[in-house]
Design a protein that fits this description.
Radius of gyration: 33 Å
Number of helices: 20
Number of strands: 24
Strand content: 15-25%
Strand order of the largest sheet: 9-8-22-21-20-10-19-18-11-17-12
Largest sheet: 11 strands, mixed
């Protein structure tokens, strides 16, 4: 017996010690049982001094089951004792990694105690892995995934894990998974356009919707969305092989010209705008050199734009009638294409130009201001190195595209892990690509006829760069990551957030996470954020987060019946989360020397504690 209860607080109990604490090992974080008849309430020792100990209530044991939380409080008459091994296993789990479980790490409270976690309870829910730089996040992620694929006889061949790798760290950790099980395949894509050994991320342009292009073109006002919608309606027509292509072009140009000719502006302005339109947009039938025949003479369109000494355009009526001849009310932008249309960024540029003149960009300075910027951004993208990420070589449907992502080209086998190395592009484009691909996966899962039959896990390294409180909600009505965290679980789309700055994450996204693995965290703002946003975090846990060694963490959530302090052993092989060997470079420098790096190491902590009553 440890002692007697002298005070019962809201969710804590103070026990007056009946033992010589100086003869005991460190008891902090070990579990005790308050036993009274059939009632067994479990507590965790939070603080100890020479005379008393503070114990936080964590749950109740009923036979072979455990109910977490403060469902009841012990009586003053309760026997206070250390927990026994068979009781500990009820809420920390068995030591054997059985079917339906995966090995996470070792308890750093109970020596060599293995923490096995239910696969469903962890991987069927959104989760977050948090911790400062150098705390061991990359090692932890690598170790957990390696164990997931190594620790069971039947590997999870049905997994679909998509990683957005902010630093290109994980290939070294996962590229050899196939050696452990030939049915497991790993695949990586890069954003380095000069690295020929790895496939470049390529997204088919025709799979991008209005929302995707709004993100890509950095839309800032709702007025810009109709232009993108018009562009998407035009591009399959203008880029396709339909015989109506010229008719549509003529129709759009003619309507724009009619609006200008009937605008009521002075003749010189009308002439200049008409010339501007036909200089950039023209066809063989409708251009500045098109002939307009009248009885007795033939003139070109350009000649009919002449203005007399009175400032009048004498042939205005003639020009208007000529232009109207190209307007075809039978044409429809909503007509379904007979065949899927392949198009490129250049085709989008052309469609954007025609969308702009059909929206009357030349008639209004206000329209020009918010509309022309889209054309400029699209032109910049189509003529930059970034165009390579949207240069897909052949037509493919969305389902076919995702299937290709999940297929190993060498063996034509299914890939369980697909890594997108987004290290070589700026944060804005990296965020957009991450959102576009995540939205594509989410939409496919939502439209799946058998809900949840093909789960997708989206793991985002440095998530604070991409999963933020953006203006998406104001412009599009939603943020894709917020939507995934709120709705994705029922469709089998699970988000894993890996970050060193949780306070910069979207509040909605992190609030929907059900499991947390938190490594050393020092920033006061992040600690305060974790305390306020993450459920079931006590002040004692917050204090301990500041002093955790690399690789040590506290884990809690749906997959853990109580908060668990553990260390995650070093992955093998490790990710490339290297530190520069400054000492070697500074003091052993040679000309043209390649910098030498050293692997960050994780030193496991083994806390010695008894799993049976030590007293």
């Amino acid at each position: 017996m440890l002692g007697k209860i002298i005070e019962i607080l809201e969710n804590s109990v103070i026990v007056e010690l009946a033992i010589d604490i100086n003869k005991q090992p460190n008891l902090v974080n070990l579990h005790v049982v308050f036993e009274s008849g059939e009632e067994k309430i479990v507590g965790e020792i939070a603080n100890v001094d020479q005379k008393k100990m503070l114990i936080n209530i964590v749950g109740e044991l009923k036979g072979a089951s455990f109910t977490p939380g403060v469902s009841s409080k012990p009586a003053f008459k309760s026997l206070v004792r250390m927990i026994k091994m068979e009781e500990l296993e009820v809420f920390l789990g068995k030591q054997e990694t059985t079917d339906g479980y995966t090995f996470f790490g070792y308890s750093n409270v109970y020596k060599n105690y293995k923490i096995n976690v239910p696969v469903n309870d962890f991987f069927s829910n959104h989760f977050a892995i948090l911790g400062n730089s150098g705390a061991g996040k990359s090692f932890t992620v690598s170790s957990l995934i390696q164990k997931l694929f190594h620790s069971r006889k039947d590997a999870p061949i049905g997994a679909n894990i998509f990683m957005f790798d902010a630093y290109g760290e994980y290939t070294s950790a996962f590229k050899d998974l196939n050696k452990h099980n030939p049915m497991i395949h790993y695949k990586t894509y890069t954003t380095n356009t000069k690295f020929a050994d790895t496939d470049i991320i390529k997204i088919p342009v025709w799979l991008l919707g209005v929302d995707d292009l709004a993100l890509l073109l950095d839309v800032t006002t709702l007025n810009q969305l109709p232009i993108i919608e018009k562009m998407l309606k035009l591009v399959p027509i203008l880029a396709g092989n339909s015989p109506d292509v010229i008719k549509h072009k003529n129709d759009i140009i003619a309507r724009a010209l009619e609006d200008i000719l009937l605008s009521g502006h002075e003749a010189t302005k009308i002439r200049d705008q008409v010339v501007a339109v036909l200089t950039k947009f023209n066809t063989e039938e409708l251009n500045l050199e098109s002939t307009i025949a009248q009885p007795g003479y033939v003139r070109t369109f350009k000649q009919c734009l002449l203005i007399d000494k009175m400032g009048k355009m004498q042939e205005m009526e003639l020009i208007v009638e000529f232009v109207k001849g190209f307007i075809d009310d039978s044409l429809s932008l909503n007509k379904t294409q007979d065949q899927p249309v392949y198009y490129t960024l250049s085709d989008l540029e052309q469609a954007m130009d025609f969308a702009l003149i059909s929206e009357g960009i030349l008639k209004s300075d206000k329209v020009f201001d918010y509309a022309n910027v889209l054309s400029v951004r699209l032109h910049t993208l189509a003529n930059s190195e970034a165009k390579a990420y949207f240069d897909y070589p052949e037509y493919v449907s969305r389902a076919g595209y995702i299937q290709k992502l999940l297929t190993d080209p060498m063996s034509n086998s299914k890939c369980q892990i697909v890594n997108f190395n987004i290290n070589y592009i700026d944060d804005r484009l990296a965020k957009v690509i991450t959102k576009i691909l995540s939205k594509m996966l989410f939409n496919m899962a939502v439209e799946n006829s058998v809900r949840g039959s093909m789960p997708f896990h989206i793991l985002i390294e440095e998530a604070h760069r991409y999963v933020q409180k953006d203006t998406d909600t104001e412009i599009l009505g939603y943020n894709i990551f917020d939507r995934i965290t709120k709705e994705g679980r029922k469709y089998g789309v699970i988000l894993g957030l890996i970050t060193q700055r949780p306070s910069e994450l979207s509040d909605t996204a992190i609030s929907q996470c059900s499991n947390f693995v938190i490594l050393r965290t020092l920033h006061p703002k992040d600690l305060d954020y974790i305390k306020n946003m993450v459920p079931n975090v006590s002040q004692e846990i917050i204090v301990q987060l500041k002093s955790l060694k690399p690789g040590n963490c506290v884990a809690f959530g749906n997959a853990f019946k109580v908060p668990v302090f553990m260390y995650v052993d070093k992955p093998n092989p490790t990710p490339l989360s290297n530190n520069v060997d400054v000492n070697n470079i500074w003091y052993h420098y040679t000309q043209m020397q390649t910098p030498v790096t050293t692997q960050t190491t994780v030193t496991p902590i083994e806390r010695v504690g008894n799993t049976s009553d030590p007293l």
